[in-house]
Amino acid sequence: MAIVTIDGTKREYPIGTTYQDIAKEYQPQYDDEILLVGINGKLRELHKTVQFDCSLHFFTGRDQPGIQTYHRSAIFLMLKAYYDVAGSENIEKVTVDFSLGKGYYIQPHGTAPLTEELLNRVMARMREYVDQKIPIMKRSVNTDDAIELFHKHRMYDKERLFRYRRVSRVNLYSIGGFEDYFYGYMVQNTGYIRYFNIIPYDEGFMLMLPQKENPQEVPVFEAEKKQKLYQVLKESVKWGERLKVSHVGALNEVIAAGDINELILIQEALQEKKIAEIAARIGADRSKKFVMIAGPSSSGKTTFSHRLSVQLKAQGMIPHPIAVDDYFVNRINSPKNPDGSYNYEVLECLDIDQFNKDMTALLAGETVEMPRYQFKTGEREYRGDYLKLGKDDILVIEGIHCLNDRLSYSLPKESKFRVYVSALTQLNIDEHNRIPTTDCRLIRRMVRDARTRGASAQDTIRMWPTVREGEEAYIFPFQESADMMFNSATVYELSVLKQYAEPLLFGIPRESPEYMEAKRLLKFLDYFLGVNSEDIPRNSIVREFIGGSCFKV
């Protein structure tokens, strides 16, 4: 017998009892289905068995590990159904390109015509598999054997990926004989995957899946609210194809061949070209006096604003940087979170009236004394920094609320040019395993905060969910109002960030709540060969996080 501690209560179970059997016993206490368990701080699938005394924690779709497992399993189910319906002989590959509007954009390649009728049959087949509750099997194979298997199944992205894996064995999953590799865990059988929808979209289709806010409801895909973002994401995929580096295996090949410096230069040139295009569009309309730059955390807004300023100067304009943070209300008057900490994410933490008064005065040609917010004292100060706008002057304003009209309510719409900046990773692990853009930004922030603020990786991981909540509430709803979007992700950066992030992640104690996420990120970074940072240009957005930038960031 083994003693299993669940929510502080000790229970005895025979050695060999499956976690699924224990989960069934506790399921009535949960509104949502139990998908995964944590054993002594480590994730385990439900088919695993009790082998020793342990502490057990249940994960449902309302938890991040749970919803990630659900999404991964649903993608696997969709692939099985698509290959069965369309016929593997008619399919070159099916790629999971990116997430969009609480779903995934999927693009099939091959001779099978992508019709609504075909997708309806795929949906119907998926529901058949759900009703059948087919076990999702897992087996461990030698890495060399896995490479041969991937080649046989024409999964060439995976074949190239595993040529650079250090591990000797690989876990493969299968549904009714359809076998694939996935980065992460799966649900126990197809009966768990009850909520999904498939919607034709552009050259592919959307696989819509529940979010952890409501794991039993499939969100509606509002295409009209995602058109600009979709075009930027589509462009990023084409960038990856143009560079011939759309997945990690291809990147590792470039690194191993000694060609990474050329790739870095090409990637940086592509970004500079885009920044120059934005500057040219602003310069073509001299009525624009306010460049409003917004984006989520660690998207590289500061470096982007500096590089845009350089390009604006090349257009004959005189840019002046303005940080919206300098208009924070004094800390004593700041809104607070329920736990008593200060909330710097909400619009109310800014002195909106003073901001509008100053900007309106500048637009009218008046001289204005500009504030500076001192984070150490928590107060706004005035130190004789005066500004007056001339004919060619333009303000480059950066802040998370810059796309929200409530921030700049008094400024004429025609005087503003809005730019949305985000790190929309164009690289995927392979054709079926995408890299979430949030992972890239989390690693960026972890590295930067350790370098500039002395914050531990544990601290960064702990506060990340709060940061993400703020983005969902105050940034993402306004992204489609941007005049232009800029993708700040670089195809090579995770190979560089890896060298800085791994030691930080290894420093997280095993007994801490953040260890599970640290372990996931370490496994993720292990896919990449490392790259030395010496040859990264000093004006690169990557420098904002690893250090050595020529700008004050």
UniProtKB/TrEMBL annotation:
SUPFAM superfamilies: P-loop containing nucleoside triphosphate hydrolases (SSF52540), TGS-like (SSF81271), ThrRS/AlaRS common domain (SSF55186). One of its GO terms (molecular function) is kinase activity. Pfam families: PRK (PF00485). Keywords: Kinase, Transferase. CDD domains: TGS_ThrRS (cd01667), UMPK_like (cd02028). Residues 1-60 form the TGS domain. It comes from the Bacteria. The keyword Transferase applies. PANTHER family: URIDINE KINASE. This is Nucleoside kinase. The lineage of its organism: Bacteria, Bacillati, Bacillota, Clostridia, Lachnospirales.
